[in-house]
Amino acid sequence: MTKEYDVVVIGSGPAGYVAAIRCAQLGFNTACVEKWLNKDNKTVYGGTCLNIGCIPSKALLDSSHKFIEAQKHFSAHGISVGKVAMDVPAMISRKDTVVDQLTSGIKGLFTANKVAGIAGTAKVVGNNKVVVTDSDGSKEELAAKHIIIAAGSVPIDIPPTPIDQDTIVDSTGALEFQEVPKRLGVIGAGVIGLELGSVWARLGSKVTVLEALDDFLPVVDRQIAKEAIKILSKQGLNIKMGSRVTGSKLGKGTKKTITVEYTDRDGEQKETFDKLIVAVGRRPFTESLLDESVGVELDEGGFIKVDDQCATNIPSIFAIGDVVRGPMLAHKAMEEGVMVAERLADKKTQVNYDLVPSVIYTHPEIAWVGQNEEELKSKGIECNIGVFPFLANGRALAANDTEGMVKLIADAKTDRILGCHIIGASAADLLQQMVIAMEFSASAEDIGLTMFSHPALSEAVHEAALAANGHAIHIGNRKRRS
Ligand code: FAD
Ligand code: NAD
User: Do residues 92 and 7 both lie within one domain?
Assistant: First the structure.
């Protein structure tokens, strides 16, 4: 028998679960289909973000940060702790507990909001029809006035280094190491490479990151990227830019190793590691999702084609999150979920794609929103730039966490803030105030005239805004015209 819903959401990652909850809140009879099974073969909600992405990676980043603090930085505060040791299985098991807590939280939210969670793999077989195949092969048909596809993304594989999730792993395998690899290779100096490379470097791995491009973090403001590579290299990440991987060979001994062959500007090179993480990007996941007869259009990258409100070419079908264009970020996915739900309820709604914040959760964190100096220069937009280093911030000094800076860029004619770029402790949280300010079209002067608590790291944002207009208080005038 066909079950009927107003909305069927496919996928329960941040895009799907948020869309489903918001749809239910708005009065739609909503189902959310999820195929993810945990180690015990039970359906779990939350997608990549909760199970193998944002949350578990941050759990390991936090554990390894505490380890390095105890090992290297407590003594500056007069605290001696003797020899600091890391129990890796305990760290991994804590991470698993955090994941379990959050994924069961989604189940609870579905119940509370009356979203029907349906286990199985969904296929869109008609404009208003979805067939769900359960893990035992049984099939169920769902009819829906609206279908929201939120099927997410998966890691990209490259032929020279086939993933075996043992010696050569993707980001999922890198969250499961049961001991610290002595020599860790990472392919890709992107977000995952730097975050997971940092985790294992802090715990004692000798980490080499091989990056094909010559420019480090090309999407990041150059001044910030330059500071980042300096700091991360000091922390032990050996980042080799311009290194293109060409092949690999698994070692034959009892203790497996992996030798990676690559070319750089000096020619052919090879290096042997105990584990290799491949982190070269992700691709949209649309396998067995769409019956061809429905005619949902994909773009040349395999993403589902949507307009700026996430409508596909089929009026009853929407697509959101990693499976569509734009940055592959959980918060972007969630906002698209809300936007589509509200659109279905005929509410005015939109996502401001110009103000999607980005964060790399290394320590210090790297966070930015809006445009960077190079982008603005290339458009010929004259800007005032204010930079404030954390070294001159009282709270950063008190915490002994003084690396990095805040860089604020304002339009030279209107003073409107066009970009904010931070490298520093808690950069993600500091940036958020600028995301809000920019949503309200704030000027650097507006931020300068706002009172900030003292002592706080956020005073660095205040001072950068003052500096953009040439009157920072706690540092020499750092105003620069670009
Ligand atoms: P997903 O989270 O991938 O969810 C898609 C869901 O759809 C999955 O559960 C899948 O099983 C299900 N599905 C797919 N096809 C079907 C089908 N046919 N039937 C039923 N179910 C189906 N982003 C951040 O913003 N901050 C971070 O700190 C961050 N850290 C990350 C760390 C790592 C290691 C990784 C890998 C990613 C990280 N991301 C981070 C990216 C973030 O996880 C994704 O942008 C986000 O999960 C995308 O959400 P989504 O709902 O579109 O897709
Ligand atoms: P990425 O695009 O950030 O980085 C991939 C890197 O690999 C690039 O620098 C690329 O030049 C390099 N590369 C590609 N092919 C290569 C090759 N053959 N040899 C050497 N280098 C190569 O991708 P990612 O780090 O895999 O992350 C995937 C996505 O997940 C990101 O786009 C991001 O949106 C999301 N993510 C976000 C966060 C966060 O928000 N903190 C954390 C993790 C992941």
Answer: yes
From the CA of 188, give the closest atom in ligand 2: 7
Count up the domains in the chain and report the number: 3
Q: Whose CA is closest to atom 2 on ligand 2?
A: 281
Q: Which pLDDT belongs to residue 39?
A: 87
- Whose alpha carbon is nearest atom 8 of ligand 1? 47
Closest C-alpha residue for ligand 1 atom 52: 321
**382 and 455 share a domain?**
yes
Query: Does residue 124 surpass a pLDDT of 90?
Result: yes
Positions marked active-site: 454
Ligand 2 centroid distance, CA of 295 (Å): 31
How many Å lie between the centroid of ligand 1 and the Cα of residue 436?
A: 25
Q: Both 347 and 390 in a single domain?
A: no
pLDDT in tens, 410-424: 999 999 999 999 999
- Is 358 a domain residue? no
The answer to whether position 440 is within a domain reads yes
Tell whether ligand 2 has an atom less than 6 A from the beta carbon of residue 408. Answer: no
∠ at Cα 53 (50, 59), nearest 5°?
80
Range of the domain at 454: 364-481
pTM for this model (two decimals): 0.98
Judge whether 177 lies within some domain: yes
Q: Which two tokens stand for residue 235?
A: 């922390």
CA of 154 to the centre of ligand 1 (A): 8
Q: How many CA atoms lie within 13 A of 168 on its CB side?
A: 19
The sign of the dihedral angle between the CA atoms of 170, 176, 178, 180 is positive
Residues 175 and 93 in one domain: no
- Ligand lying nearest the CA atom of residue 284: 1
Mean per-residue pLDDT, 260-267: 97
Query: Residue 477's pLDDT is what?
Result: 62
Statement to judge: residues 343 and 411 lie in one domain? no
Task: Give the nearest ligand 1 atom to 171 CA.
Answer: 34
Query: Measured from the CB, is residue 3 less than 6 Å from ligand 1?
Result: no
The domain boundary, picked from 280, 315, 339, lies at 280
For residue range 373-398, what is the model confidence (pLDDT) as tens digits?
999 999 999 999 999 999 999 999 99
**Relative to the alpha carbon of 120, which ligand is closest?**
1
Q: d(Cα 173, Cα 167) in Å, to the nearest integer?
A: 9
Which two tokens mark 30?
Answer: 């909503």
Alpha-carbon distance of 401 to 109, in angstroms, equals 38
Q: How far is the CA of 192 from the centre of ligand 2 (A)?
A: 6
Give residue-wise pLDDT tens across range 38-70.
989 999 999 999 999 999 999 999 999 999 999
